[in-house]
From TrEMBL, chains A, B:
PROSITE patterns: HTH_DEOR_1, HTH_DEOR_2. The keyword Metal-binding does not apply. Pfam families: DeoRC (PF00455), HTH_DeoR (PF08220). This is DeoR/GlpR family transcriptional regulator of sugar metabolism. PANTHER family: AGA OPERON TRANSCRIPTIONAL REPRESSOR-RELATED, HTH-TYPE TRANSCRIPTIONAL REGULATOR SRLR-RELATED. InterPro entries: ArsR-like_HTH, Carb_Metab_HTH_regulators, DeoR-like_C, DeoR_HTH, NagB/RpiA_transferase-like, Tscrpt_reg_HTH_DeoR_CS, WH-like_DNA-bd_sf, WH_DNA-bd_sf. Gene3D superfamilies: 3.40.50.1360, Winged helix-like DNA-binding domain superfamily/Winged helix DNA-binding domain. Keywords: DNA-binding, Transcription, Transcription regulation.
Amino acid sequence: MSGNGHKLLTAEREQRIMQLLHDSDVVTVSAISEALGMSEATVRRDLQAMHERGLLERVHGGAAVKQESSPEPLFSDKEEQFSTEKQRIAAAALSLIHDHDTIFLDGGSTVLMLARMLDSLKALTIVTNSLMAAAQLMESPHRLILTGGEFRAISRTLVGPLSSPILKNIVVDKAFMGTMGFTTTDGMSTTDANEAYTKTRVMERARQVILLADRSKLGCSSFVTCGPDWHLDVLVTDAIDPKTRQELEERDIRVIVAGKNATAKANAGTARADQ
Amino acid sequence: MSGNGHKLLTAEREQRIMQLLHDSDVVTVSAISEALGMSEATVRRDLQAMHERGLLERVHGGAAVKQESSPEPLFSDKEEQFSTEKQRIAAAALSLIHDHDTIFLDGGSTVLMLARMLDSLKALTIVTNSLMAAAQLMESPHRLILTGGEFRAISRTLVGPLSSPILKNIVVDKAFMGTMGFTTTDGMSTTDANEAYTKTRVMERARQVILLADRSKLGCSSFVTCGPDWHLDVLVTDAIDPKTRQELEERDIRVIVAGKNATAKANAGTARADQ
DNA sequence: GTGGAGATGATTGAATTTGATTGAATATAA
DNA sequence: TTATATTCAATCAAATTCAATCATCTCCAC
């Protein structure tokens, strides 16, 4: 049997409860109580505590696994998705940068990948609001400037009105932006108003705005747009349908498709990725 | 076996505790006490010490393995030099903070140690120019704001004129400062002009300025001072000579000495004073 | 030997956790 | 719909665990 005489610590119990939940997506309070040899009152308290920490979903009579309702996947997860495509996009964007440029790096995993490639260039001035990018560039010889602002945990970026004053003081040659969604009508959009605000301020201070967005972003619209009169100079993506491409080029937006043959080295991508 | 007559050294015990933890992710205080043949009081002391060094997680009734909550490797936490003096200073400074305070955290290892202790407080607004502190506070529930500025690699802080505009927009209740040196004539001093500049701007925007400086800093003067009309409200240190102390107190600067047994008293004192 | 610093174990009151109980809220059946 | 059976959250007392204090002990320098 499971109930081995000795008392269980809270941490231990939570571990067991998560295991029970993992085995069958739903468990009842009484089942947990019996399995762990503890009163139902304690089980309910544990479940509530775990629910408050977002570990599980509470349902009448028991608990259920937390379904991924998060509108924005965690940073680490995003980095796994589309890594090959994002790498190609970042590589294509890299060729737009020259020595001695002043560039801005936005948040997002694609831009972060670009940040990792900057060692090959010399004497850049890099402005960023992404702590991940900053962490990546800490040891680099380039000049690194962070915008201030309120820290947004989910994207690990500095956003909001407090980022505005510092952005007013600088001008960058090229701003490399990430986004949650992009449409030809609304431009970039994201899930957080503060983040959209900062993106807008950045783009106002950039001579050239370059968007790095894989195909999953194109045609999608998220919660907040970056304002009605959006502006974009270059879109770097991995695939785009001809209609959208034409629309963009009519607006004088250069489209760079970093496809498989564009980098030539990365061949034989999984066929299912072409979905 | 376990209880081999001779007494165990602290280091030896910690090794055994880590082994127990490694075997089963959770162990009780009583289990450790029994396994190592020592009183539960000593076990608790060991566990606390190890917890403070980040070796394990303390839970009611025992200890649990430290789960790596953040998927990202933190900035670079290599210089994890644990110093008892700095720990005491930070603990004494902690008792100056209350729930809902707005505080500033400067760079430096002592202030960083304070940042690690902020979990015990609620609903803080934390402004900082230290990327180490920011990394430490990334997962905390507090509101976190970073000043912008140029990244200075050696101190991992954001400094220089670009940090000024954002600082003009905020006011903090208490600013916890670090320093390279401090004298009663020149105040704080550091090695970098940009860093001194930012320190000065911060102190202008703080209702109360609190300096955390161990005794090695007192009486030392570094390259750049933070300006002729420096201002300080509280100095927290681990030891100070009477003459300096008197000079400071004549200037209405409160001196807190976090001696060996002062930590407990300081905490207990505030706990009651908070009533 | 003397004295001080540090470590240990016992003790104490405070804080936390637990299980039982209660009435209210919710789900199920008729 | 109403009636019945579960489940829930709040409360309380008992048990456990905690942190702080104190007396003792060891070790080391003087």
